[in-house]
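User: Can you write out an input/output pair for a complex, sequences first and structure second?

Assistant: Here is one pair. Inputs:
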Amino acid sequence: MIWSSGWRLASAVSNAGGLGLIGSGSMYPEVLKEHIIKCKAATNKPFGVNLPLLYPNIEEHIQIIIAQKVPIVFTSAGNPKAFTSLLKQHGIIVVHVISSSKFAKKSEEAGCDAVVAEGFEAGGHNGREETTTFVLVPAVCNAVAIPVIAAGGIATGRQMLSAMVLGAEGVQIGSRFVASDEASSHENFKKAVIDTNEGDTILSLKQLTPVRLIKNKFYGEVQQAEAKLATSEELKILLGKGRAKKGMFEGDLEEGELEIGQVATLIKTIMPATAIVEEIWTDFEAALIYPLK
Ligand SMILES: Cc1cc2nc3c(=O)[nH]c(=O)nc-3n(C[C@H](O)[C@H](O)[C@H](O)COP(=O)(O)O)c2cc1C
């Protein structure tokens, strides 16, 4: 997750038994390299890098990932054909994030090892189709033979179990870990996340790159512009540069972009990542009425 998942969060999640991912989308190449080196020093468990294909520096990021022998890469927001074969030639496991069965099939054809099926509820950038996790996961499971990881609206063990009952083999959890001690997000943003209630987030900027965020002053300006039928160019000017950093990293709750999922309404405390993983696991086991294979 941009501005949230650096080496501290990724290594803490991996040490707790999950698969921690470094969010490279907000990092310059040298910064990514530093985070990978620090993550390796902080854990001897597997970890990965998330690579949003819409950001600049992709080629440099990929060279660093290969040189640093990162074992797993999650690509998102782009064409799975672009870099999958190159990464796989270097023995890297590649998982692509999708929001439709159509792109799940394209990912399978491109040679991806698994897909993340990310529903409409999810925080951050999202699909235009607005397919919810409950509908998307079984649809994608029917469409492809490779493993499906569910994402969007999962913050508890019960939600994880539900996703697995729908056919997912694992879950990707974002928002819950924003409200962790190790997330690099600003404290103001973390506090805003735990104060978020039902209806406080929305999938915005659908004309540009759809993103789920908290409705704040910046969102109000977007809404007004859209009501006046603003063009994509006008929206780009309104968005400007650095809105996500301003909101999530610098803590400007008025002017910044605050990316978080609907599930924020269930997140009530900022906790260490290890405690989050343990709580989810305990809740999962408690909800497990019938043993899974
Ligand atoms: C603050 C934030 C930043 C995110 N940044 C990225 C990103 O850089 N790349 C990506 O593939 N997904 C990103 N996501 C999406 C998450 O990886 C994950 O799929 C999503 O949060 C799952 O839904 P949830 O928020 O309901 O847990 C981000 C999510 C959040 C909340």
